[in-house]
Design brief:
Layout lengths: L2 H8 L5 H26 L3 H26 L5 H25 L4 H24 L11 H4 L7 H20 L1 H9 L1 H6 L4 H18 L1 H4 L4 H13 L5 H25 L5 H19 L5 H16 L1
Helix pairs in contact: 1-13, 2-7, 2-10, 2-12, 2-13, 3-4, 3-5, 3-10, 3-12, 4-5, 4-10, 7-10, 12-13, 12-14, 13-14
Protein backbone atom coordinates (compact mmCIF):
# COMPACT_ATOMS: atom_id res chain seq x y z
CA UNK A 1 0.00 0.00 0.00
CA UNK A 2 1.20 3.49 -0.89
CA UNK A 3 1.13 5.48 2.37
CA UNK A 4 1.26 8.83 0.55
CA UNK A 5 -1.79 7.82 -1.50
CA UNK A 6 -3.62 6.77 1.67
CA UNK A 7 -2.85 10.09 3.40
CA UNK A 8 -3.95 11.99 0.30
CA UNK A 9 -7.25 10.11 0.24
CA UNK A 10 -7.66 10.61 3.99
CA UNK A 11 -7.20 14.38 3.66
CA UNK A 12 -9.44 14.74 0.57
CA UNK A 13 -6.51 15.70 -1.68
CA UNK A 14 -6.35 12.59 -3.88
CA UNK A 15 -8.70 13.92 -6.53
CA UNK A 16 -12.32 14.97 -6.80
CA UNK A 17 -13.77 11.49 -7.31
CA UNK A 18 -11.80 9.92 -4.45
CA UNK A 19 -12.73 12.80 -2.14
CA UNK A 20 -16.39 12.35 -3.06
CA UNK A 21 -16.23 8.61 -2.37
CA UNK A 22 -14.60 9.18 1.04
CA UNK A 23 -17.14 11.87 1.91
CA UNK A 24 -20.03 9.59 0.92
CA UNK A 25 -18.58 6.77 3.01
CA UNK A 26 -18.18 9.08 6.02
CA UNK A 27 -21.79 10.28 5.73
CA UNK A 28 -22.94 6.67 5.43
CA UNK A 29 -20.94 5.68 8.53
CA UNK A 30 -22.43 8.57 10.50
CA UNK A 31 -25.99 7.67 9.48
CA UNK A 32 -25.42 3.97 10.23
CA UNK A 33 -23.87 4.69 13.61
CA UNK A 34 -26.65 7.09 14.53
CA UNK A 35 -29.59 4.83 13.71
CA UNK A 36 -27.68 1.79 14.97
CA UNK A 37 -27.48 3.25 18.47
CA UNK A 38 -31.28 3.50 18.70
CA UNK A 39 -31.77 0.06 17.15
CA UNK A 40 -29.39 -1.41 19.74
CA UNK A 41 -31.14 0.38 22.62
CA UNK A 42 -34.44 -0.99 21.28
CA UNK A 43 -32.83 -4.45 21.42
CA UNK A 44 -33.27 -5.07 17.70
CA UNK A 45 -29.67 -5.20 16.55
CA UNK A 46 -30.22 -8.51 14.71
CA UNK A 47 -32.87 -6.84 12.56
CA UNK A 48 -30.12 -5.13 10.56
CA UNK A 49 -28.72 -8.56 9.72
CA UNK A 50 -32.08 -9.70 8.36
CA UNK A 51 -32.47 -6.50 6.32
CA UNK A 52 -29.00 -6.73 4.79
CA UNK A 53 -29.40 -10.35 3.70
CA UNK A 54 -32.92 -9.72 2.39
CA UNK A 55 -31.53 -7.18 -0.10
CA UNK A 56 -29.73 -9.85 -2.16
CA UNK A 57 -32.69 -11.27 -4.15
CA UNK A 58 -33.98 -7.78 -4.98
CA UNK A 59 -30.51 -6.68 -6.01
CA UNK A 60 -30.08 -9.65 -8.35
CA UNK A 61 -33.62 -9.42 -9.76
CA UNK A 62 -33.09 -5.72 -10.52
CA UNK A 63 -29.79 -6.58 -12.21
CA UNK A 64 -31.45 -9.28 -14.32
CA UNK A 65 -34.38 -7.04 -15.27
CA UNK A 66 -32.18 -4.12 -16.33
CA UNK A 67 -29.73 -6.43 -18.13
CA UNK A 68 -32.52 -7.99 -20.20
CA UNK A 69 -34.22 -4.70 -21.04
CA UNK A 70 -31.31 -2.29 -21.44
CA UNK A 71 -28.29 -4.56 -21.76
CA UNK A 72 -26.66 -3.07 -18.66
CA UNK A 73 -27.75 -4.14 -15.18
CA UNK A 74 -25.35 -1.95 -13.22
CA UNK A 75 -27.48 1.21 -12.90
CA UNK A 76 -27.09 2.00 -9.18
CA UNK A 77 -30.48 3.67 -8.46
CA UNK A 78 -32.27 0.70 -10.09
CA UNK A 79 -30.26 -1.79 -8.04
CA UNK A 80 -31.00 0.17 -4.86
CA UNK A 81 -34.73 0.19 -5.58
CA UNK A 82 -34.74 -3.58 -6.13
CA UNK A 83 -32.75 -4.16 -2.94
CA UNK A 84 -35.07 -1.87 -0.98
CA UNK A 85 -38.19 -3.72 -2.15
CA UNK A 86 -37.06 -7.16 -0.99
CA UNK A 87 -35.57 -5.69 2.20
CA UNK A 88 -39.00 -4.20 2.97
CA UNK A 89 -40.60 -7.59 2.27
CA UNK A 90 -38.10 -9.12 4.68
CA UNK A 91 -39.01 -6.59 7.37
CA UNK A 92 -42.71 -7.22 6.80
CA UNK A 93 -42.18 -10.98 6.99
CA UNK A 94 -40.36 -10.72 10.31
CA UNK A 95 -43.08 -8.43 11.72
CA UNK A 96 -45.88 -10.72 10.48
CA UNK A 97 -44.26 -13.86 11.87
CA UNK A 98 -43.67 -12.18 15.23
CA UNK A 99 -47.22 -10.83 15.57
CA UNK A 100 -49.24 -13.66 14.00
CA UNK A 101 -47.37 -16.73 15.24
CA UNK A 102 -45.76 -17.88 18.47
CA UNK A 103 -42.26 -17.52 17.04
CA UNK A 104 -39.97 -15.15 18.99
CA UNK A 105 -38.41 -12.35 17.01
CA UNK A 106 -34.94 -13.92 16.82
CA UNK A 107 -36.39 -17.12 15.30
CA UNK A 108 -38.40 -15.10 12.78
CA UNK A 109 -35.27 -13.13 11.85
CA UNK A 110 -33.31 -16.35 11.36
CA UNK A 111 -35.97 -17.86 9.13
CA UNK A 112 -36.34 -14.75 6.96
CA UNK A 113 -32.59 -14.08 6.78
CA UNK A 114 -31.71 -17.58 5.59
CA UNK A 115 -34.64 -17.86 3.17
CA UNK A 116 -34.06 -14.55 1.43
CA UNK A 117 -30.31 -15.01 1.24
CA UNK A 118 -30.76 -18.53 -0.15
CA UNK A 119 -33.08 -17.16 -2.84
CA UNK A 120 -30.50 -14.53 -3.71
CA UNK A 121 -27.74 -17.13 -4.08
CA UNK A 122 -29.96 -19.18 -6.41
CA UNK A 123 -30.67 -16.09 -8.51
CA UNK A 124 -26.93 -15.41 -8.75
CA UNK A 125 -26.58 -18.70 -10.64
CA UNK A 126 -29.20 -17.44 -13.10
CA UNK A 127 -27.11 -14.33 -13.72
CA UNK A 128 -24.22 -16.57 -14.79
CA UNK A 129 -26.24 -17.77 -17.76
CA UNK A 130 -27.01 -14.29 -19.05
CA UNK A 131 -25.17 -12.99 -22.10
CA UNK A 132 -24.59 -9.59 -20.52
CA UNK A 133 -21.33 -10.09 -18.66
CA UNK A 134 -22.46 -12.48 -15.92
CA UNK A 135 -22.03 -11.14 -12.40
CA UNK A 136 -19.75 -8.30 -13.51
CA UNK A 137 -20.72 -5.35 -11.35
CA UNK A 138 -22.38 -7.37 -8.59
CA UNK A 139 -19.23 -8.41 -6.75
CA UNK A 140 -18.85 -4.95 -5.25
CA UNK A 141 -22.25 -5.29 -3.57
CA UNK A 142 -21.21 -8.43 -1.67
CA UNK A 143 -18.08 -7.18 0.13
CA UNK A 144 -18.08 -3.51 -0.85
CA UNK A 145 -15.88 -1.73 -3.36
CA UNK A 146 -15.11 1.95 -3.86
CA UNK A 147 -12.17 1.61 -6.25
CA UNK A 148 -14.43 1.27 -9.31
CA UNK A 149 -17.20 3.56 -8.08
CA UNK A 150 -18.42 6.11 -10.61
CA UNK A 151 -18.80 9.77 -9.73
CA UNK A 152 -22.59 9.59 -10.20
CA UNK A 153 -22.73 6.63 -7.79
CA UNK A 154 -20.66 8.47 -5.19
CA UNK A 155 -22.95 11.51 -5.43
CA UNK A 156 -26.06 9.30 -5.08
CA UNK A 157 -24.65 7.61 -1.98
CA UNK A 158 -23.51 10.88 -0.39
CA UNK A 159 -26.86 12.65 -0.91
CA UNK A 160 -28.90 9.65 0.25
CA UNK A 161 -26.71 9.13 3.33
CA UNK A 162 -26.99 12.82 4.28
CA UNK A 163 -30.79 12.71 3.93
CA UNK A 164 -30.98 9.56 6.06
CA UNK A 165 -28.78 11.11 8.73
CA UNK A 166 -31.09 14.14 8.80
CA UNK A 167 -34.03 11.81 9.41
CA UNK A 168 -32.24 10.32 12.42
CA UNK A 169 -31.60 13.83 13.82
CA UNK A 170 -35.23 14.90 13.39
CA UNK A 171 -36.64 11.78 15.06
CA UNK A 172 -34.01 11.31 17.77
CA UNK A 173 -36.29 12.37 20.64
CA UNK A 174 -39.05 9.91 19.72
CA UNK A 175 -36.51 7.16 19.08
CA UNK A 176 -34.91 7.73 22.49
CA UNK A 177 -38.17 7.64 24.47
CA UNK A 178 -39.53 4.59 22.63
CA UNK A 179 -36.22 2.75 23.05
CA UNK A 180 -36.25 3.14 26.82
CA UNK A 181 -39.94 3.09 27.76
CA UNK A 182 -42.56 2.33 25.08
CA UNK A 183 -45.42 2.56 27.59
CA UNK A 184 -44.40 6.05 28.69
CA UNK A 185 -43.98 7.05 25.05
CA UNK A 186 -47.54 5.95 24.31
CA UNK A 187 -48.85 7.82 27.37
CA UNK A 188 -47.43 11.15 26.13
CA UNK A 189 -48.81 10.71 22.63
CA UNK A 190 -45.86 9.23 20.73
CA UNK A 191 -47.11 6.57 18.27
CA UNK A 192 -44.89 3.66 19.27
CA UNK A 193 -45.62 1.41 16.30
CA UNK A 194 -45.07 4.22 13.77
CA UNK A 195 -41.87 5.22 15.54
CA UNK A 196 -40.63 1.63 15.40
CA UNK A 197 -41.56 1.50 11.73
CA UNK A 198 -39.71 4.75 11.03
CA UNK A 199 -36.65 3.41 12.86
CA UNK A 200 -36.66 0.22 10.80
CA UNK A 201 -37.26 2.10 7.53
CA UNK A 202 -34.25 4.33 8.20
CA UNK A 203 -32.26 1.20 9.03
CA UNK A 204 -33.43 -0.27 5.72
CA UNK A 205 -32.38 2.85 3.81
CA UNK A 206 -28.96 2.90 5.45
CA UNK A 207 -28.50 -0.76 4.55
CA UNK A 208 -29.48 -0.23 0.92
CA UNK A 209 -27.33 2.89 0.58
CA UNK A 210 -24.35 1.11 2.10
CA UNK A 211 -24.40 -1.89 -0.23
CA UNK A 212 -21.96 -0.31 -2.68
CA UNK A 213 -19.60 0.85 0.07
CA UNK A 214 -19.58 -1.93 2.66
CA UNK A 215 -21.41 -4.77 0.90
CA UNK A 216 -24.54 -6.60 2.01
CA UNK A 217 -22.54 -9.10 4.08
CA UNK A 218 -20.72 -6.48 6.17
CA UNK A 219 -22.99 -3.40 6.18
CA UNK A 220 -24.58 -4.82 9.33
CA UNK A 221 -21.30 -4.17 11.17
CA UNK A 222 -21.65 -0.42 10.60
CA UNK A 223 -24.94 -0.44 12.51
CA UNK A 224 -23.73 -2.63 15.39
CA UNK A 225 -20.04 -2.07 16.14
CA UNK A 226 -20.04 1.77 16.48
CA UNK A 227 -22.99 1.79 18.94
CA UNK A 228 -21.44 -1.06 20.93
CA UNK A 229 -18.19 0.92 21.05
CA UNK A 230 -19.91 4.14 22.09
CA UNK A 231 -21.70 2.29 24.90
CA UNK A 232 -18.35 1.77 26.64
CA UNK A 233 -17.86 5.54 26.97
CA UNK A 234 -21.22 6.99 28.00
CA UNK A 235 -24.56 6.24 29.67
CA UNK A 236 -26.39 9.12 27.97
CA UNK A 237 -28.47 8.07 24.94
CA UNK A 238 -27.97 11.35 23.10
CA UNK A 239 -24.22 11.36 23.59
CA UNK A 240 -24.11 7.69 22.65
CA UNK A 241 -25.82 8.40 19.31
CA UNK A 242 -23.45 11.29 18.55
CA UNK A 243 -20.37 9.28 19.52
CA UNK A 244 -21.59 6.27 17.56
CA UNK A 245 -22.11 8.44 14.48
CA UNK A 246 -18.61 9.90 14.87
CA UNK A 247 -17.03 6.45 15.21
CA UNK A 248 -18.96 5.16 12.21
CA UNK A 249 -17.99 8.17 10.11
CA UNK A 250 -14.30 7.90 11.04
CA UNK A 251 -14.13 4.15 10.39
CA UNK A 252 -15.97 4.38 7.06
CA UNK A 253 -13.86 7.33 5.91
CA UNK A 254 -10.59 5.62 6.86
CA UNK A 255 -11.72 2.35 5.29
CA UNK A 256 -12.74 4.01 2.03
CA UNK A 257 -9.43 5.92 1.91
CA UNK A 258 -7.46 2.74 2.55
CA UNK A 259 -9.42 0.85 -0.10
CA UNK A 260 -8.95 3.66 -2.61
CA UNK A 261 -5.18 3.64 -2.08
CA UNK A 262 -5.03 -0.16 -2.41
CA UNK A 263 -7.52 -1.19 -5.14
CA UNK A 264 -7.36 -4.89 -4.25
CA UNK A 265 -8.68 -4.27 -0.72
CA UNK A 266 -12.43 -4.91 -0.18
CA UNK A 267 -13.89 -1.75 1.32
CA UNK A 268 -16.39 -3.44 3.62
CA UNK A 269 -13.83 -5.71 5.21
CA UNK A 270 -11.42 -2.82 5.80
CA UNK A 271 -14.14 -0.69 7.40
CA UNK A 272 -15.17 -3.56 9.68
CA UNK A 273 -11.59 -4.21 10.78
CA UNK A 274 -11.03 -0.52 11.58
CA UNK A 275 -14.33 -0.42 13.51
CA UNK A 276 -13.36 -3.52 15.45
CA UNK A 277 -9.96 -2.00 16.27
CA UNK A 278 -11.71 0.97 17.89
CA UNK A 279 -14.09 -1.43 19.67
CA UNK A 280 -11.20 -3.52 21.02
CA UNK A 281 -9.41 -0.39 22.25
CA UNK A 282 -12.58 0.77 24.00
CA UNK A 283 -13.12 -2.67 25.50
CA UNK A 284 -9.71 -2.47 27.15
CA UNK A 285 -9.23 1.22 27.89
CA UNK A 286 -12.69 2.63 28.64
CA UNK A 287 -12.65 4.32 32.06
CA UNK A 288 -16.26 3.25 32.69
CA UNK A 289 -16.58 -0.34 31.50
CA UNK A 290 -13.16 -1.27 30.15
CA UNK A 291 -11.28 -4.38 31.21
CA UNK A 292 -8.50 -2.34 32.81
CA UNK A 293 -10.98 -0.23 34.80
CA UNK A 294 -12.83 -3.38 35.92
CA UNK A 295 -9.60 -5.04 37.03
CA UNK A 296 -8.55 -1.95 39.00
CA UNK A 297 -11.99 -1.76 40.59
CA UNK A 298 -11.85 -5.40 41.71
CA UNK A 299 -8.34 -4.90 43.04
CA UNK A 300 -9.47 -1.85 45.01
CA UNK A 301 -12.44 -3.78 46.39
CA UNK A 302 -10.23 -6.64 47.54
CA UNK A 303 -7.89 -4.21 49.30
CA UNK A 304 -10.86 -2.55 51.04
CA UNK A 305 -12.13 -5.93 52.22
CA UNK A 306 -8.64 -6.91 53.41
CA UNK A 307 -8.34 -3.68 55.42
Amino acid sequence: MDMSAFLAALTFTAGYNTALVCLGAALLGAAAGGIGSFVMLRKRALMSDAVSHATLPGLVLAFIGMALTTGDGRFLPGLMVGAALTAFLGLYAVDWLTRRTRLPEDSAIGAVLSSFFGLGVVLLTVVQSLETGGQAGLEGFLLGSTASMLRSEAITIAVAAAATGLGVILLRRAFTIVSFDPNYAASIGIPVRRTDLAMLLILLLVTVIGLRVAGLVLIVALTIIPPATARFWTDDAGRMAVLSAAIGAAAAHAGAALSASGPSLPTGAVIVLISFGVFALSLVASPRRGLVAAALSRRSARRSVAR
